Amino acid sequence: MSPDQVRAVIVTHRSATEVAAAVRSCLAEGLAPSHLRVVDNASPDRTVAVVAETAPGVPVTRLARNLGFARAVNHGAAGLDGAALLLLNPDAELTAGALAALCAALDQDPRRGAVSPRIDRPDGRLDLACRRSFPSPATAFFRLSRLSRLFPDHPRLAAYNLTDRPVDQPGPIDSGSGACLLVRRTAWDRVQGFDPGYFMYGEDLDLCWRLGVAGYTVWYEPRARVRHHKGRSSRQRAVPMLWHFHGSMWRFYRQHYAAGWGLGLAPWVALGILGRLLGLTAWNLVRRDPRVSP
Questions:
Q1: Which whole number is the average pLDDT over 37-51?
Q2: Helices and strands in the chain: count of H runs, count of E runs
Q3: How far apart are CA 165 and CA 261, in angstroms?
Q4: How far apart are CA 118 and CA 181, in angstroms?
Q5: What is the structure's pLDDT at 50?
Q6: Between residues 206 and 289, which one has the greater pLDDT?
Q7: Which range, of 52-61, 197-206, 254-263, averages the lowest pLDDT?
Q8: Which residues, listed in sequence order, are joined to residue 62 by a DSSP beta bridge?
């Protein structure tokens, strides 16, 4: 598979300050302007104008209202051809050779439904969301209690973000990040894309879960590097994003764990999510640097 067989979707909202770099990085990796689609979620800023100025040949769909990330991606992917679909956040940039490395990794095994790159923050730190295990009550406890940070090399305590593994080690993972993910088109169509019930956050975990149920695997490929200026747009509306984030946590649990023994834990999980939401909401109202995740 070559980059010219890939079609890309970038969903924007209040992304005028960063979207130009994301678009340019796609074009530099060999994507033709007509193979990249930008879907704007009713931005009140100059996001759409910036895309038009940066790459006049890139199709832009401007939605009348903010449909959320999952629905906007599904909207952008509808009708696109190509062998694979690249999902890229407007605050993320492909580095040289990233798309070719993602394509090569997807090509290596027809059972691979998606490939996640190594995603780095601007300061060089790994964006831990690019290789994850599925969240569970146990991994959530280890993360929220900060035991995973105290013992980052412990395979049990650090299971969610896999910090016990070398960052340059490729291999199968439960889930990558929607900030950048290359999905086999036949796999995307088989699971019908993102669940539109997720407004923002959690849709990538749910997608990878359903890919696994459908018989596909997800692969982490560190040779593909992406730079992610994480959280710029969400910090503009940190408190609403907190509600979306925790609502997605609860939706994921209800869909995939609240049966059998998980049903008995559901009230405690709900209380834990609600408590975290209320605590972080209060903290974000007084802090100078609001964010969705501490």
A1: 96
A2: 11, 9
A3: 30
A4: 10
A5: 97
A6: 206
A7: 254-263
A8: 40
Q: Position of tokens 């209060």?
A: 282
- Residue whose token pair is 């992610």: 228
DSSP-assigned beta bridge partners for residue 88 = 10, 180
CA–CA gap between residue 237 and residue 240 (Å, rounded): 6
The residues facing 218 across adjacent strands are: 114, 173
Measure the CA–CA gap between 236 and 54, rounded to whole angstroms.
24
Q: How does residue 227 score in pLDDT terms, banded at 50, 70 and 90?
A: very high
- Supply the DSSP string of 161-228, one letter for each residue: TTTTS-TT--EEESB-BTTEEEEEHHHHHHHTSS-TT-SSSSHHHHHHHHHHHTT-EEEEEEEEEEEE
- Give dist(CA 30, CA 261) in Å, integer: 49
Count other C-beta atoms under 10 Å from residue 181's C-beta. Answer: 25
d(CA 207, CA 205): 5
Which residue type, as a one-letter code, is found at position 191? V
Q: Which amino acid is at 67?
A: L
Cα angle 199, 201, 205; round to 5: 115
Please give the model's pTM, rounded to 2 decimal places.
0.90
* CA atoms of 222 and 2, how far apart (whole Å): 18
Query: Residue 175 has which token pair?
Result: 């889930």
115, β-bridge pairs: 182, 219
- Distance CA(157)–CA(151), nearest Å, equals 7
With tokens 């209800």, the residue in question is: 254
Any alpha helices (H) in 108-183, and if so which ranges? 137-144, 147-150
